[in-house]
Amino acid sequence: MARQKDLKPESDAKFGDISARLQDLGSRLAAEKKQTAQAEKPPTQYQGATDYSRGYRLVSEFVAGILVGGLLGYGLDYIFHTLPLFFIIFLLAGFGAGMVNMSRSANRSAPSAEELAKMPKPNDDETEDK
User: Fold this and answer.
1) Spatial distance between the Cα atoms of 62 and 56, rounded to a whole number of angstroms
2) Whole-model pTM?
3) Could you say which of 39, 43, 58, 113 is the most buried, measured as most Cβ atoms within 10 Å of its Cβ?
């Protein structure tokens, strides 16, 4: 047992420099992994919307369908001088289109982490006005 105590300080002196270098390397690798994990996080612009914003989006799609249908119908009635006919038809078509868009948007799920990783990241150079 006395030999083990004698060997321990000798081994520390012999491998002390390597031990310190390994600890330094370990800490640098941990910092690099943390930095890489931060860089690989999906952008916040693609993360799930809150319930309120999702509700407003659904309502706006529904109202937009009705308004576009009504305006198209009124425009055709103004051109052909048949005021209620196209207005009613396109208003109902806009209502139907708004319902379809709203149901599609409500059933759409948020992208998974794998899909987010495949999405192209926004490039700062392309978004700047030249």
Assistant:
1) 10
2) 0.50
3) 58
